[in-house]
Amino acid sequence: MPDRKNRYHRFVLLGLILLLSIIIFKELHPYLGGFFGAFTLFILLRGLMVRLVEKHNWRKGVSASVIVLGTTIFILIPLTGFGFLAVDTISGISIDPAQIIKSMREFSDIVEERIGITLFTPENLSFVPRAGSSIMQSLVSGLSSMVINGVIAIFLLYFMLVSYQSLENITHEILPFSEKNKRILREETKSIIQANAIGIPVVAITQGILAYIGYLSFGVSNPLVYAVLVACTTIIPVVGTSLVWVPIGISALTQGDIVRGVLLLCYGLLIIGGSDTILRFVLQKRLANIHPLITFFGVIMGLAMFGFWGIIFGPLLISLLLLFFNMYRHDFIPGSTAQPRVTTKEDGKGGILFRKRAAK
Q: Where does the chain cross the membrane (predicted)?
């Protein structure tokens, strides 16, 4: 009887925890980016905090304050400044919907005359006048959310760093896994976050530089403006930087500069677009061997759910789902060849950590 009563109390308590968690999650959903940002920064900076406290004997409060100040100066302020630069750059572009529609119709007439296919009609061009204002509203809203969540992230990061030992102990205590799986979960989470947090800025900066060099060489007006736009669009799934280099190439074609337009499109496809594929492949192989489909669907889901920080936590959530699935197969299905990992990491001896389980 006491065991049944204790079990009842346990389920009631878990139910209350779940209910309150759902309510809090619902109300704080607009600010989840700040929570995830703080968690990302904590994962990246925890090692520095440990060194300052345990090796150099700094006080926790002083160590956390120095790290937070450095993070604000060298990460969040440049990131926010880049966001303002992007919005200012886009808002400074003179967009004449009538001229755009005229150019698209002229290009459509050329295509229709040569191959007999109608690309644009008055009906499917009606979106053009509304597109500019919609894009600007989205950018301004996204930038405001980014600033607010950045402040929340810094605030939370300080307390997470100060309480890093108790935070890790609590997390380790409540996870319902074996010690081995807890270690794997910690390693996988850190690996995936580092891969995205380091890889995305590297890809964005590299593509921006390549775009600037190319547009400067081809005589595109305002090459720096379009290079900034290329860097900003690297995080957009599927289309990405093609949102910038395709209209630039088509614009040259509609103006009758066929050779230059073809060269711009080829440069965008092969150099700007190709560098994205190569860089992501190399970085993911070195930092975390994340399957491209995980990154693809993770970014789509993450941006919709969490905003900017979703480019990191979208792939992480999908990876964790696959990791838990693999753990279940590995631990509870006899004869399963599943390995309790999603990324490939080598141990200190050069072997792969997720070797096949030995036959019993």
A: 7-25, 31-49, 61-87, 139-161, 192-218, 224-246, 258-282, 294-325
By the 10 Å C-beta count (0-12 exposed, 13-18 middle, 19+ buried), 170 is classed as exposed
Question: In the structure encoding, which two tokens stand for residue 328, read together?
Answer: 């279940």
Name residue 118's amino acid. T
54-69, pLDDT tens digit by residue? 999 999 999 999 999 9
At 93-144, the pLDDT tens digits run 545 555 555 655 666 666 566 665 555 555 555 554 555 555 555 555 666 7
**Radius of gyration in angstroms for the set of CA atoms belonging to the chain, rounded to a whole number:** 25
Helix or strand holding residue 110 (H, E): helix 97-115
Q: Count CB atoms within 10 A of the CB of residue 290.
A: 25
Cβ distance 164 to 50 under 8 Å? yes
Domain coordinates in residue numbering, the chain: 31-171
Q: Any residues with CB less than 8 A from the CB of 11 and at least 6 apart, and which? A: none
